[in-house]
Amino acid sequence: MDVQPNLYEIVRAMPKIELHRHLEGAVRLETLIDIARDFGMEMPEYHPDVLRPFVQMMPDEPRTWQNFLAKFRVLRQFFLSPNVIRRITREVIEDAALDNIKYMELRFTPRALCNSIKATPDEVVQWVCETAQATAKAHNIQVRLIVSMNRHESVEVGEQVTRAAIAHQHLGVVGIDLAGSENDYMAYPFRHVFHMGRAAGLHVTLHAGEWQGADSVWDAISSIGAERLGHGIRSIEDSGVVNVLLQRNVTLEVCPSSNVDSGVVKHMSAHQLPILVASGLSVTINTDDPLVSGISLTDELVRVMQYLPFNLDDIKQFMLNAAQSAFLADDERALLVAQFREWLQI
Question: Which one of 1, 57, 75, 301 is least enclosed by Cβ atoms within 10 Å?
Fold first, then answer.
């Protein structure tokens, strides 16, 4: 489906919000080349096109979860010093600002960032927070941080990560997240970890309803009390789960291109997004991993209009949904909503 020629520029210029972007999947390809060269990582040639197939889904590559996750196994080899982590954090925020994103909640997994350098979760969170604050101020963008842990790791790791998140709320940490394989690991064992975070004032979002069906969503909301769901697209497989999401006003952080790239959805035109919206759920549109999917948020929003029955007014509503679901104090959220209503004229 074609779109009007100037639509891309209209969307690019529009003030935007992103609630679901992973630091680890948003690195600049050129930066990875610099890191490889600086640290003597063996490559046939230090050129972006040589590295690209290892960290980005290619046009002719089968869309499977195995191929998708393989990109992250490569990416995690590049976090080789505190300065690298700081540089990547700075550039991710700069790129968001260039795309006219005015508010972003950037999530990152301390364990993934600290494995190669044997740093502690507390140190990694400190580096990311300090860099994010300085960069956001310099580029006129609001940035809050979500600290993530993985289902396949131990609950003890989750406790360490959550304690680090709690300790850095004054530097912009607003939430905690659980990611990883829903098929093999339930959220339930982490319930006391999230209770600890919530009691300290952190918000809660969980990856659910992507790899696994609606039972994963139910686990996230009943066991953990998730306020938002990363992806959540398979909620529609159970009307009872949809009703609970509506009753609890749980927002979905939908990442359409990522869902296609990971093999969860066969094609963008077959995405569940229209059904989710028609059900009355609060839905937001996000990139997930800009490098891995080769997209910006502008690209993602234009694709939604190209392949699905949505127009520019719908895109504005998705942005407003995101403002209303931001992990902010009530007064800050109200200001953000008012600002976006003014900017978008809705």
Answer: 1
